[in-house]
Amino acid sequence: MSLRNLIFFLAFWCLLFPNFTSAQPGHFFLRDTFCSNQLVIVGNQVFDASNPMGVVVLPGAAFTGGDSTVHVELKFNQPKEVTLNASICEGDTIWVNGTPYHANFYIGDEVVQEGAANGCDSIIHVNLTVTSKVSNINATICEGDTIYVNGHVYDMFHTEGVEVIQGVPCDSIIYVNITAITPPFSEVKDTLCPNDFLLINGTRYDQNNRAGYEIIKNGSYTGCDSIVAIDLEFRNLWVYVGEDQEIIRGDFACIEAQYGLEPVELVWLPYAPCSDSACTEPCFRVVDPITFSFIATDVSGCVLIDDIRITISNKNRVYAANVFSPDAAWPNNYFYLGC
Hints:
The protein is mainly beta.
């Protein structure tokens, strides 16, 4: 190697390796510090963290024209490694070296170029713990009922929602899902006898109150209220035996029983005022006050009753008939004195 080339080589070597020293002519020492991810080429040899030391012979590199020997003693610093163990709340994000870490991405390695104090890279091992306070409220309510979650109303018109309850260290999240049950609906439709009635939910339904709606508390098998619609009709049946009478003792009273129905049974109480228990126009002598009840049962099973009260007058009198007909019906064919 020419002197000019040797000087150029040594100058270049010194620029590259400021810790390059010479102990004796033709022998040089290279001592320096590098990072573990770097490598140094001396001559035709490569030095790195796995091969930090060695001897390199540069043929003809000495200024005398002989070989140069380079003793390489290098130190390779490892990158600074730290582990980031942190706890975050679900929904939060932290940034490490410009990378976002959150509930769906919570483990990773970040390399910070030349971030260590020794000038080498630093490696951050990220290991996050995500704290989740998530719960569900799946409830079934009756229509018309209301529940409160976190101070908010949930009912048949507002059945879903997400509630966030502020807490330490993390908020609580509640997913609300409400099912509202429609109250069962039923109908009561019937045709009743004139004097019958139905007592539904404490309300009397009769001819004067034929229709309405009743809410039966907790009447459903689900525990909800039930709704009952009432619609009644009444048979147009009637019985009439006339107005009450006042009779002078011993006089005859006549009753005419009338009815608007198809009878299957006619009964007088306390006894029939005639020989035929089903008679409808009896006439009879009255000695003591009495009340008769006329009971008629129709083909639909309806039983109708009407009463007539016969009282005795305190007036006394005697009379005699001035006309009678032996061939007439009783009592016109009978002659007697009355008092």
